[in-house]
Amino acid sequence: MFDYTVITNNIGLLWQGLLMTLYFTVITIGAGMLIGLFIGLIQLSTFKPLVILGQVYVEFFRNIPLLVTLLWVYYAFPIFAGINVTKFWAGFIGLSCYVGSFYAEILRAGVQSVDPGQTDAATAIGMSYGQRMRRIILPQAFRKMIPPLAGQSIIQMKNTTLLSMITVPDLLYQASYISSFTYRPMEVYTAVGVIFLIILVPLTLLSRKLEKSGSLK
Amino acid sequence: MSASDAIAREAGAVTDKSDKPVLRLDGICLKFGDKRVLNGIDLSVVEGEVVVLIGASGSGKTSLLRCINLLNVPTSGSIVIDDETLFDRQADGKGAQIPAQEVNRIRSKTGMVFQQFNLFPHMTALENVMEGPVIVKKEPKEQARQKALQLLDLMGLAQHVEKYPRQLSGGQQQRVAIARAMAMQPKVMLFDEPTSALDPELVGEVMKAMVELARSGMTMVIVTHELGFAFEVADRVVFLDQGLVAEQGPPAEVLLHPEHPRLKSFVGRFHESADLLRPFLEAREAEKAC
């Protein structure tokens, strides 16, 4: 029936895959946050062309399936732009741009949900735009942004599984590799599911806790 | 040393009223889209003067107040604060371009107190008051802290300096807001209906703080519906109607002998509500006498 030895015998491969998945999760969330901050602030500016540019970015990456974006960066970039990208860079760029568009929207909504009276008060004591954002608006916005940011980041970890489609050896790629020579896909993919559960459930609980302590402040 | 003297010293204000205008508005026009809110307002406020703006809702008094520190940017007109031009744009679009940095600097010569307090909720009362001096004026933290503690003490909040806004009553929050504005040592204080959002029993403590401030020689421009306060404290009452100054003068003149028909009905409503209360007050007096 359920053959555990398939997993125990190949635990090394799964471990390598997990490290790759975690690695991509962390670096694309980091880069995505920077992109999101940049695009989010662009959308919040008063200069119309910048606002539109930000919106175009967000709608572009949010509405194209991630798989298409990844394949496009990996296969089409070299053909049309003549730039050769390794699969690692392609995965990094595709995933970061994708999650960045969601973060940008979260940031924009978070900032816009801060009472405009706060901007008035900060402006009235002579603060510049940068000082207002850094000292008054963003700290308040970030608190409201914790739950959606955590949610999006959890989705991001699951989205990294699409990397296997451009042959990055992540957890899912290793799983399909293992099942290709053991012929036991059920055990292997169940193990992958359990690994994701073990990592993401505690993170979800942590974000709930943060949300509570954030709303108290 | 009385509290008001101390505030005067803090603010660096001059106790004697002089003729030097601290604030001069010329031909302020303001449009929101097609809606004309202000239609050319001239107003000059001298050092130590307390000016109260009154008018029906929609008459433009809050908009005018927000124009003084450019929270609303006028369509045209000019604003001079303490001999420095904050804004200058003629009707034909010509005028001096003032860089944003300068605008922020000159703007901080005004202190503003809002109807909804607008304290920074993620900071304690003390941090709220220190924020301007430390971040905008780059004062050393310890110095700003001492000054902030002094101001909060003057506002009767010595016991609440470490509390967050949500732990304070509306009246206390508004007094923190006054201290926050005062910490920038403004030349003129702007009050936008400072007691309108307060429970009735909390209005008094904020009024008291404002009276002290006025007695200390602070220059103040106040939008309020508290005509009693205007009568007691104002040097001049300005009645706005349809975005224009319809009538102005000493409070006794404007409030007791209004000439403009709209001002008559505006003040009339105030007298009416006072009249409505009279029987109750008299009944209470009678009860006391028994």
Automatic annotation (TrEMBL), chain A:
The keyword Transmembrane applies. The chain crosses the membrane at residues 20-42, 63-83, 188-207. It is a multi-pass membrane protein. Its main location: membrane. It holds the Pfam family BPD_transp_1. GO terms for cellular component: ATP-binding cassette (ABC) transporter complex. Residues 18-207 form the ABC transmembrane type-1 domain. Belongs to the binding-protein-dependent transport system permease family. HisMQ subfamily. Part of the binding-protein-dependent transport system for glutamine; probably responsible for the translocation of the substrate across the membrane. It is found in: Cell inner membrane; Cell membrane. InterPro entries: AA_ABC_transptr_permease_3TM, ArtM/GltK/GlnP/TcyL/YhdX-like, MetI-like, MetI-like_sf. Keywords: Amino-acid transport, Cell membrane, Membrane, Transmembrane, Transmembrane helix, Transport. The keyword Chaperone does not apply. One of its GO terms (biological process) is amino acid transport. One of its GO terms (molecular function) is transmembrane transporter activity. This is Amino acid ABC transporter permease.
